[in-house]
Every structure is written in C-alpha cells, then in structure tokens.
Amino acid sequence: MGTRSLLFGVHQVFWHPWTVYRAWCYLYGKPTWKEIICIFSHDLGYWGKPNMDGEEGGRHPEVGAKIVERWFGDEYQKLVLYHSRHYAKLHSELPSKLCWADKLSIMFDPKWFYLLRARSTGEIKEYRKNAGSMVAWNLSDSEWFDWISAEFIEAARTGTINEERA
Ligand SMILES: [Fe+2]
Ligand SMILES: [Fe+2]
After folding, report:
1. Would 165 be classed as within a structural domain?
2. Residue 2 Cα to ligand 1 middle (Å)
C-alpha cells in the first residue's frame, strides 16, 4: 500500500511534495534548499509499508529523517520526523513546520486528481475509516474530500498560529 501510494497514489513521489512546497510558500515564504530536500523526502518511508496509518505506516517519517540527519543534522531530522502529528505525539514532541505545510498541501491538490489517486490505490478506504468521525460516514467521496480538506486547512491554520505564539 505504501509503495503504491508513492508511485501513483496520494503520496506520489513528485506530485505530493510539489503541493507541500506550494503550501510551504503560502505559509512561510520560499523554503531554503535544505528545506526543499526535506519536503521531497518526508514521506519516502512509506516505501514497502503494508499500511498508511497503522503500526508500520505510522513510522514512515523515520526514513526521510535519517537521510536528512546524515546530510544536514539534527534540526532537519526533527523537521522531517515530526511532520506527522501522530509520530510527534507518540514521542511527546510538537509537530514541526513541515506538518502544517503537509496538511495545507491538500489546498493545492485538485479534488478530482486526489480522488483519482486515492481510489486507484485503495488508500481512500483506509483514510475514510481512520479519519472518519461519525459526521463523515454518510458522505460521498467528493463530500468527504471537502470535509477532510476543511479539517486539514483548519489544523494548519491553528497549528501555525500556536507556533507563532510559542
Ligand atoms: Fe507523512
Ligand atoms: Fe506528506
């Protein structure tokens, strides 16, 4: 599942980072070249993972983090490692700047294209199951996308505001 996601799914290895890049520009202005490398490697750890949000998929930030740690050191390792809220929480850390850009990236992903990818890999089933509050159960895929987009954009908005205060 993880490999398919990187090849032609939601986390397509060129397209998804591109939308994260655009979200980063929107939130923080142009990233440095080191940050760009982080943006393009943050989800590489999905490779070979049997699920997206389960035990294995949940550890996907570790691969990209290891790469950038070797090249750029600690600060960038943390940027990639804690791009996942789930992972950050597990390690009692705050989500990184990359987390909010990652969330907001859905704003730069056209609905039809996102759904095409999510359906073709079957990811959408897992996402809908996991990110489905009661509200989302009866929604069509298209309505679900609108709902999750709004959730992600709101998360990015409050996340970045809290960061400014901290
Ligand atoms: Fe990720
Ligand atoms: Fe991502």
Report:
1. no
2. 11
Could you tell me if residue 49 is left (phi over 0), alpha (psi between -120 and 50 degrees) or otherwise beta? beta
Q: Are the CB atoms for 57 and 139 separated by under 8 Å?
A: no
For the chain, how many structural domains are there in total?
Answer: 1
**Closest ligand to 12 CA?**
2
Evaluated on CA atoms 81, 87, 91, 97, the torsion sign reads: positive
pLDDT tens across 26-79, in order?
Answer: 999 999 999 999 999 999 999 999 999 999 999 999 999 999 999 999 999 999
Neighbours of ion ligand 2 (CB under 5 A): 43, 102
* Alpha-carbon torsion angle 67, 71, 77, 81, nearest 10: -20
The rounded distance, in Å, linking the Cα atoms of 89 and 82 is 9
pLDDT in tens, 93-139: 999 999 999 999 999 999 999 999 999 999 999 999 887 677 777 89
163 within a domain of the structure (yes/no) = no
Give distance in angstroms: CA of 136 to centre of ligand 1.
22
Note whether residue 108 is domain-resident.
yes
Q: Which domain holds residue 154?
A: 2-158
Residue 90, domain member (yes or no): yes
Among 81, 98, 99, smallest CA distance to 90 is for 81
